[in-house]
Amino acid sequence: MIGPDRISRRTVMIAGALAPTLAAAKAPMAPGPGRGPWRTASPEAHGLSTPALRGAADLLAAKGERQGLVVIRHGVLVFETYWKNDYHLARPDWPNVSFSSGKSWGSAMVGRAVTEGRLKTSDLVAKYHDPKVSGLRPETTIEHLLTMTSGGTLNVKPSSKTPRRLDDPAPPGPGVEYAWQAEGERGSPPGYGVSVVPGSTFYYDGAPADHLANVVAKASGMTSLRYMMEHLVRPLGCDTFRYQPEGVDKAGNIRIGGSILLSCRDMARLGQLYLNRGRWGGEQLIASDYIDRALTPSALNPSYGYLWWLNGSGRVASAPRDMVFAAGARGQFCFVVPGQDMVIATMGFGAEQLSAQDAWSALSPTLDA
Questions:
Q1: Closest to 107 in 3D by CA, of 240, 260, 282
Q2: pLDDT of residue 365
Q3: Minimum mean pLDDT among 147-151, 160-164, 171-175: which range?
Q4: Alpha carbons 179 and 157: distance in angstroms, whole number
Q5: Rounded to the nearest 10 degrees, what angle do helices 356-363 and 50-63 cross at?
Q6: DSSP H stretches of helix in the chain
Q7: Is-above-0.85 flag for pTM?
Q8: Spatial CA neighbour of 258 closest among 238, 243, 273, 278
Q9: Distance (Å, rounded) from C-alpha 266 to C-alpha 335?
Q10: C-alpha angle with apex 312: 228 to 143, nearest 5 degrees?
C-alpha cells in the first residue's frame, strides 16, 4: 500500500508523543449537517476568497487527474468544483475509490463501537477473533491494529482494485477473501507476521487493520458491513457511500484498508465529524476522548494516530501543525484544519501519484486569502 507522501512502507522507530491535536481546539461553529445535505454559503461569507479558491482548484487539477474538491468552513460547504476525465464525471455525487483513506473510516467505525460500549481499544483482538484465523499474535490489542504496530499477519486481503474507465464494460470483480501468504511482503521487517512483537515496531500495512472488521462483527453481533452502514454512515447522512464489490467478503465483512466508493462531499463528512470531536447533528456519535486518542501521535510514529495521519511533526511542511488527514493512493485526501475550522476533501484518479505535500501546496493559498 502507498502512504500519502509516496513513501514505501518502512519501520519507524521514533518515540515520544505530542498533545492531542483537537482537544485544545475551540469547538466548531456548526455541528455538521446531520442526515441532511450540507448547508451552503459563499466563501466570502466565511472569510475566504472565491478567486483564491478557484486558483487553488486550478493548481490542484494541474498536479493530477482530480474528480472533485470540496471546502467546508465553519461546518458550511463554501466551495466545490468537479472535473471530467477518463475515469470520472464532473458530478458532486460521483463515487471515487477511497484507497487507503478508507482506513480513517475504519478508525471511526471502531470509535463508534467503543462509544457504544461494545469493545475497548485495550482489548485483546483474540477476545473477538481467533489468532489461528487472524494470523495475529495472541497478545495483539485493538490499539495495535489502529496504530500499525501489531507486528503483522500473513493472513491478508489483496489491495483495492483501481477504478474502471468510463468506457470499460468489464463487470465488477468478486469479493476479496483472506488468503495466507508464505512470508511478509517485500520491504517488511524481518519476522513480520510471525515473530515481531506487537507494540515494538511501526510498519504501514493495511492487512492487519482489515481484521478490525472481524472484531467489530463479533462485538456487535452483526456483519461489519451492516454495522458500518447502520451505526456510522447513515447517521452521518452519507448518500453515496458504498463498497467496491471486492470490498466485502462472503461473511459480510469489509476491507478496512480501502475499497470504499464515495463522493468528496461524503468524505468531508468524516473530516467534519473529527473536527467536531465526534459530535454530529446534536448526537455524540463518537466519544470525544476516543477522537482525542485517535489524533494523538502513537509512541512509535509521531505522524500517525488511529489510522489517521498527523502533521504535528511537520510531515507536510507547508501545512499547519494542527492539521490531520486521511490519505489514499492517487491523491485521496481529507484534510482537517482545526485552527481554521476547515475541512478540505479532494479525490480523483490518474496515472501520477499526488502527495499530501503537493496537494497542500496548491490548497494553502486559500488560507491566506
A1: 260
A2: 79
A3: 171-175
A4: 6
A5: 150
A6: 50-63, 102-115, 131-134, 142-146, 206-210, 212-220, 224-228, 264-275, 288-294, 356-363, 365-368
A7: yes
A8: 243
A9: 13
A10: 40
The confidence score (pLDDT) of residue 9 equals 36
Instruction: Find the helix packing angle between 102-115 and 212-220, rounded to 10°.
Output: 30
Write the secondary structure of 193-213 as one string of H (helix), E (strand) and C (coil): CCCCCCCCCEECCHHHHHCHH
* Weakest mean pLDDT among 82-86, 167-171, 326-330: 167-171
- Provide the b/e sequence for 315-335 (b: ≥16 CB within 10 Å): bbeebbebbbbbbbbbbbbbb
pLDDT over 60 (residue 27): no
Cell reading at 322: 494542527
pLDDT tens sequence across 102-115: 999 999 999 999 99
CA torsion angle 45 46 47 52 (round to 10): -90
Binned at pLDDT 50, 70 and 90, residue 10 comes out as very low
What is the average per-residue pLDDT within 296-303?
Answer: 96
Cα-to-chain-centroid distance, residue 141: 20
- Of 296, 301, 300, 347, nearest to 326 by C-alpha is 347
Residue type, 121: T
Whether the per-residue pLDDT at 284 is higher than 80: the answer is: yes
Can you tell me the distance from the alpha carbon of 326 to that of 106, in angstroms, rounded to the nearest whole number? 11
- Which of helix, strand or coil describes residue 190? coil
Task: State whether the Cα torsion 55-61-63-69 is positive or negative.
Answer: positive
Q: What is the radius of gyration, based on Cα positions, of the chain?
A: 19
Query: CA angle 176-182-185, nearest 5°?
Result: 75
Least confident of 106-115, 151-160, 261-270: 151-160
DSSP state of 149: -
Quickly name the fold that domain 11-368 has: Beta-lactamase (3.40.710)
Half-sphere exposure of 124 (CA within 13 A, CB side): 8
Q: Where are the domains of the chain?
A: 11-368
